[in-house]
UniProtKB/TrEMBL annotation:
<dbReference type="GO" id="GO:0045071">
    <property type="term" value="P:negative regulation of viral genome replication"/>
</dbReference>
<dbReference type="InterPro" id="IPR051517">
    <property type="entry name" value="IFITM_antiviral_protein"/>
</dbReference>
<dbReference type="GO" id="GO:0051607">
    <property type="term" value="P:defense response to virus"/>
</dbReference>
<dbReference type="GO" id="GO:0034341">
    <property type="term" value="P:response to type II interferon"/>
</dbReference>
<dbReference type="GO" id="GO:0035456">
    <property type="term" value="P:response to interferon-beta"/>
</dbReference>
<dbReference type="InterPro" id="IPR007593">
    <property type="entry name" value="CD225/Dispanin_fam"/>
</dbReference>
<comment type="similarity">
    <text>Belongs to the CD225/Dispanin family.</text>
</comment>
<dbReference type="GO" id="GO:0005886">
    <property type="term" value="C:plasma membrane"/>
</dbReference>
<keyword id="KW-0472">Membrane</keyword>
<keyword id="KW-0812">Transmembrane</keyword>
<dbReference type="Pfam" id="PF04505">
    <property type="entry name" value="CD225"/>
</dbReference>
<dbReference type="GO" id="GO:0035455">
    <property type="term" value="P:response to interferon-alpha"/>
</dbReference>
<feature type="transmembrane region" description="Helical">
    <location>
        <begin position="89"/>
        <end position="115"/>
    </location>
</feature>
<keyword id="KW-1133">Transmembrane helix</keyword>
<dbReference type="GO" id="GO:0060337">
    <property type="term" value="P:type I interferon-mediated signaling pathway"/>
</dbReference>
<protein>
    <recommendedName>
        <fullName>Interferon-induced transmembrane protein 1</fullName>
    </recommendedName>
</protein>
<feature type="transmembrane region" description="Helical">
    <location>
        <begin position="37"/>
        <end position="59"/>
    </location>
</feature>
Length: 125
């Protein structure tokens, strides 16, 4: 008796030489890859400082195209880039908007004070 046959006999496996058949079913799971296209469109329309929103929109469209073709890895790579660009566009857009509002307020106050001094100087003469 060979060593393998002895081990099979000890383990109590069936002595038939027919191999058990197995069926393998490949089920493709529908992985959801967010393409961030709505966020990119929002950044393109409203917060498009330095064109980051437009670039993010382009990467979102590329991600959606890759997803439609079935290239999940490529879609995830483009989506990740679009997400980073959207975050950058949002932060830069918020900071630039706040800076513009502050510049407008302080500029208006400065112009008001300058005009007030001019009026006061003209009243002295």
């Amino acid at each position: 008796m060979h060593k393998e046959e002895h081990e099979v006999a000890v383990l109590g496996a069936p002595h038939s030489t027919i191999l058990p058949r197995s069926t393998m079913i490949n089920i493709q799971s529908e992985t959801s890859v967010p393409d961030h296209i709505v966020w990119s469109l929002f950044n393109t329309i409203f917060l498009n400082w330095c064109c980051l929103g437009f670039i993010a929109f382009a990467y979102s469209v590329k991600s959606r195209d890759r997803k439609m073709v079935g290239d999940v890895t490529g879609a995830q790579a483009y989506a990740s880039t679009a997400k980073c660009l959207n975050i950058s566009a949002l932060i830069v857009g918020i900071l630039m908007t706040i800076g513009f509002i502050l510049l407008l307020v302080f500029g208006s106050v400065a112009i008001y004070h300058i005009m007030l001094q001019i009026v006061q100087e003209k009243q002295r003469y």
